[in-house]
Amino acid sequence: MAIPRTIRRTNPITLALAGLLSLGFLVFLFSPFSNAAAVSTAKRKFDSAAAHPLSPPTAPFQKTSSSMKGKRPPPPVVHYHMNNLTTTSDPVANQENVLILTPLARFYQGYWDNLLSLNYPHSLIALGFITPKTREGNAATAALQAAIAQTQNGPEEKRFASISILRQDFDPPISSQDESERHKKDNQKARRSAMSQARNSLLFTTIGPYTSWVLWLDADIVETPPSLIQDLTSHDKPIIVPNCFQRYRNDKGQWDVRPYDFNSWQDSDTAAELAAKLAPDEILLEGYSDIATYRTLLAKIADTSEARDQKAIEPLDGVGGTALLVKAEVHRDGAMFPPFPFYHLIETEGFAKMARRLGWSCWGLPNYFVRAVVPPTPRHIRPLLTRLTRYITTTNENMTIFFVYYVHVRSNISSAVLDTGPLLCMIFNGVTLRRTEAALLASWLSGIKTALYSIKAAFLSQI
Questions:
Q1: How far is CA 36 from the centre of its chain?
Q2: Is residue 325 very low, low, confident or very high in pLDDT (cuts 50, 70, 90)?
Q3: Exposure pattern of 230-252 as b/e (b: 16+ CB <10 Å)?
């Protein structure tokens, strides 16, 4: 006998299931988007790797619906829950994004190789660069783009989440990037003011809502521990710097190390007295023998022994920018790099002062080292020039040539990348260079911007 339809409609089980389904649908529809899983899902959606090797990730392309008759739908509203963003001592476990920023006026292959050697997950690393609009900046940009294209088209585990390249919209105050010119005292205020402008432009353009940490890394830093990011974040400090040294050849021709960054320091009463006597637009510099500030320099309290405590930490009043890790919330709070005298300080030292005024603390690791590249000089490459001169002059005495800027990682000089004039390439198949020699030669040749005529005479005039 068939069951009446009225009984089927009023079955208690059916009504209970319908009620539960309706309740679940209403909860899903009206619940706020606040749980961590949902945030993580949205984050993965928007943090997908770049489609083009030189571009940052973008939102997926949305095709115009035919039902809209050619009209584009209104853009979506994206919610970012900043309270869910973490900056912890274990950033890998918490999937925290790191933004590495580099003002880059000269490209060093060692810098890029060191970036690739960092063992922090590259999928959590975004890179940002700003280069000057000069001939040397053009050459550096070309070499950087070549390195990026090779990396971003290579193995997936080596690719970075996104890469942005900015070009400066202002002229650099000094044309030469030679170390002697960059560190000349008379150039410091103008040079570091321009550096502040470049850093701020780069920071404000590239920092995103998912950025947890910002690592400032100078373009001449070619040697860091692979665990640099994990080591610095493990201290869980808002601002922290390692000690920056430089490898160089001493008077005996042997490799040695020396302090390089003198902008990380603890203040002194003498420095405060000197600052009190300065005019409002004057700055107090560090690292010059004729300005005795008697500050405690991080570079001078380093322990270089093998048994040193690399976790030793000191509070600081000023910081350098060779390798500077900052919690992104410090920058979001308003701490930037003043391009003007701020309490008689400028750029990274001014940033430290501003951050401290905002309530953040600065710290330094005196026994944890990163190292800068050795600036090549004609004295260092004399043997190389002699060998190349001999080869060129025996091949063609009157050859006109533009020299190679980019050196292949296999230690052979490959095709030339220059920005002006007819491009005449020379491949030194007849000259075998060791990798260190090739890198040294490339660094020195990066400053040459015009054609070299009569190669033998031109080379000998440089040595």
A1: 29
A2: very high
A3: bbbbeeebbbbbbbbbbeeeeee
